[in-house]
C-alpha cells in the first residue's frame, strides 16, 4: 500500500470520517459566564479583575513567581529579550526550526538571529552540537561571548519547545552558563509541558507563553511573560503598560514603553480556558496514545513522543517520515488535506526565509532533514474524550 | 466664589451628585449576541467573520477605501509610519501635546520625534507657525526635507486630533506638500469626527484609529489603519499578519512582519459598538451643549468647542482656564476628583518626558501654556441621553 494511504487509514482508525482542522479551541467551561461578567463590569480593556486573576492562575499552574499577561506570544518574547538586555547589533541564538515569531522578536530588538541546529529526540536545540560550535566560533571577553567572525556580542539563547516537547533544558542551561548567555525560553507551544517536573518557561531568566487561537488554550490573541525575578517582573509590567508612572491624574512615562497589556476581555476567556487545561491535556495525551497504536505498524513513519523525563502537552501531534521516505511528504499532505484531515509540514526553516537568509548559522543538517520529514496531523483536544 | 467651586457646581448642574470616571464604555447594543456568536463559532482569534465585518463597517462609516483592524492604536500608527517609509535615523514632526503613543510609534521605527507647537483653536499642530519654522530650519534636497542642524531627513508629519477635535487639515496638507513630507493622521481620539464633511484619518497617506477602553467605542484593546491607497492597504494586511504568503500548508514569510491582527473576539465587540456610534456621538454632543450652558457664566474658564467647519466627536470634554488662572488648575483637579468627578489635566507635553527630553523641537510656548490650563472633565456618552 502507498505510504500516504497507510497514514490516512491510521488517522481514520482514530478519528473516523470527518473534516477536521489541525487544531481548534474548545469552549466547554465558563467562557460565556466570564465574558458576560466582564462585559457587565464595563472593564473590557487594559484594567480589570480578569487580567489579575489570569496572571495569578498562570503563576499557580506554572509555578512561576510572576506571570505578566500581554497581547500575544510575540510581544511576550520581544519584552523578555529586551529586558534581558538584548540590544541593537547583538546576536541571539535561536533554533532554525521554529515559527517566524522567534526570529521576529529578535529583530524588533535590533539584534540578529543566529541559527542553531536541532536534535532528533526533542526537535529542539542540540546542546552538545551547539557547545562544540561555540567553542570554535566564539571567544569570551570579560562577561561577554563574542562571535569571532562578526565581532558582535552573542547575548542570549532562546530554546523553543517544539510542538510542546521540552528541549534538553539541563544541557542548555549548562551551555548558557559556560558561555555567558542569557537563557530565554520560547514556551509559546508548551503550556502544560514539564521538564523533570518543572513547567517549561520557568527555567530561563524569562519565558514566553502564547494563547493564540491555535494553541492548547486561547484568549483570542494573547501571551504571557513568565519570570522568577522580582525586578524583571516589575520592569515587564511597567514597560508593557506604556511605562506610565502611577499617579492620580498625571501622564508621566519614564521610558519608551509598549501598549502590550492583555485586555480584560481576552483574560476573561483565558481564566475559563485555564480551568479546563488539565482535561485538555489529558485528551491530547489520549489522542497521542490512540495515534501511537495506529501508527505502530507503519514502518516508514514514527509518531513523535515526549522526551525522557518530560511530560509534553502534545500540542501538535507530529509524524516523522524515515529519511528514505522524505520525498513522499507532499503526497501524504495532499491526500490528508484532500480527505479532510488538515495537516501541514513543519515551518520552512528560518534560515531559508527571505528576511533571514543572510543571518549567521551553524551547520543545520538536522533541521534541514527534519523540516522535510515532519508532518503535523489533527491534534485538537476535542477529537477524543479526556480520561479525567 | 472660588473657581474650583464654581466649576464643581457647573458640572453638578449637568450630571448631578454621583461618582463618575472620566470616560467609560457602554454596552447597550448587540455586544452579548455577537460575543456569543463568536464563541460558538470557535473563531475567536486572528481569523473570523467579525474581523472582516468590522473592517467593512469601518470603511463604510469613515469613507476610507480600506480599514485594517489591529491590536491597538499604537500598532496602527507604528505600521502606518513604517509603510509610509519612516526608517531609522529619520525625524518625524509630531505635536508635543499628545499621548505618548504618538512618540513611541516613531521610536519603534528607529526614528526621532521632532516636536511641534499647537494652536489655540484646535489644540492641534499650528500649521502657520510650523511653516515659518520649517522654512528656517530645513532645506530641500531632491525630494527630501533635510533638517539643516541634524542633517537627518524629516520624513513625515503626524497631526493628532486632540480630544476628537480635528486639526487644521487643509493647511497641514499644504505644509506637507510644500516641504515633501508624508502626512499620517493620528486619529486615535477622533472616530466620528469630520473635517469639512470628511472623516478624520482619511486625509493623509494613512491614518490610525484606537478602540481602547477609554475611547468613544471600544474593542477591549484595538485599533485600525485607514488608507485610500490599495497598495498600502495590501502591504498593511500582509505585514500585520506576520508577512505570511498565502499557501495551503507552507509557512513562508517574505519580510519581518508583526503579530498585530485584531482577534475576532475583539472585533465582535467592535461590530456591536460601531452600530451604536451615532447615538454615542449624539449623547456626547448633547453633553457638550449642557456643559456649555453651565460654563457660560464662568468667566475664568472656556469649554473647548469644535473648530470651524468641523464636526467633533467630543471624545473628551475639555475646559481651558484663562492664563491668569493657570495656578488654580491643581486645586480644581483636587476638588473635582475628591467629589467623585474624575478629571485630569492634559498629558505632560512629550518634550518634557525623560525618553524624549533630548529630541529636537520648535518653540513650544503654546503647548506649554495649554498643558497648564486644560482640564478634561467627565465625558462618557452614558452621562446624558442621546437626542437621536
Kindly summarize this structure in a few lines.
Chain A is of the alpha/beta class and 388 residues long. The first copy, chain A, contains twelve helices and 16 strands.
Characterization of this structure:
The structure is a homodimer of 388-residue chains. By secondary structure, chain A is of the alpha/beta class. In chain A, helix 7 links the parallel strand 6 and strand 7. In chain A, the strands form four sheets. A seven-stranded mixed β-sheet of chain A has the order 1-11-10-7-6-2-3, sandwiched between helices. In chain A, 55% of the residues are buried. The two termini of chain A are 37 Å apart. Chain A contains twelve helices and 16 strands. Chain A is globular. The mean pLDDT of chain A is 97. Chain A folds into two domains: 130 residues, Alpha-Beta Complex (Aspartate Aminotransferase, domain 1); 245 residues, Type I PLP-dependent aspartate aminotransferase-like (Major domain) (Aspartate Aminotransferase, domain 2), CATH 3.40.640.
